[in-house]
Amino acid sequence: NKNGSILLTEDEVLHSTIECLTQHIPLETSGAFNSHELFQLLVRAACNCDSIENTAKGFKQSPCGKTIRYHFNKINDFSELESQLNTALLSQVLPRIRKGKLKLAIDLNLIPYYGQPSEEEKPYIYRSQAKQGTCSFYAYATLYVIKKGKRLTLAIKGVKPTDTSVAIITHLLDKIAPLNVNIKTLYLDRGFFSISVIRWLKALEIPFIIPAIRRGKKGGIKQFLQGRKSYTTSYTMRNNQGDSVEFDLWIICRYRKGKMNKRGIEYFPYVVFKPSVNLTSIHDDYRRRFGIESSYRIKNL
Length: 301
Fold this sequence. Notes:
By secondary structure, the protein is an alpha+beta fold. 30% of the residues lie in helices and 28% in strands. The chain contains 9 helices and 9 strands. It has helices at 10-24, 35-47, 52-56, 65-72, 78-91, 165-175, 195-203, 282-287, 290-299, and strands at residues 101-112, 125-131, 134-147, 150-159, 182-188, 208-211, 231-238, 244-255, 265-273.
């Protein structure tokens, strides 16, 4: 275009995606169709938020939905599939993505699970706070790079109930080690707010921002949610096991101005370590990563 950037058409993006999947995820087929055609149906169904069966009806001489699922069910080694997907993701990283200090974000995405899990499913059922009528979920964590307002997934990890928050972050950062990424700021969602995560990231000297969770009726983080101006302070968090960690706490004050029929001051507390932003811009800077969670909501439509 006139700005000198390259524009990709929908067909080019589709072709590139299918080629990447075909190259990194082997799928044995037989008969009148091949893995390329199966991945094409799968990707089109995902893009249109449609079922495999309904998508297949739009193609002449396409295998039926039952046949398509039969072949994809051959992919039953979870660890191997995860490794293949991470290799595929890294294969798409452009050289310029690796340059300079990068903003990274890690999110935990929960997919509601209903019913009684089988013995094969039990190791992958993650328990969390009730959401959409269940406390059971399939869970996976993703690591994104944020550059010039764009987001690119670099790594993914299926989360098991036995995985700690520190283990999840360690695994994802290890997956992108070949890129030699220099982290400018690591943005974590509120689910990673814990003594172990904060202490571990500080020990590694990794700059980060995490929303602080307000627990209890008084004391804790809640005691700092006061005043009419944003400010910074320090806080020592402790648990019942005797562990503790001290960190910088930034309290952001925002006036609702009648938004959602609410008025008054709204407070946003953040745990901050070696920030690359100042007090006046940290809230807006962190909110930009919400585009990541928006993509999850679109995916689940």
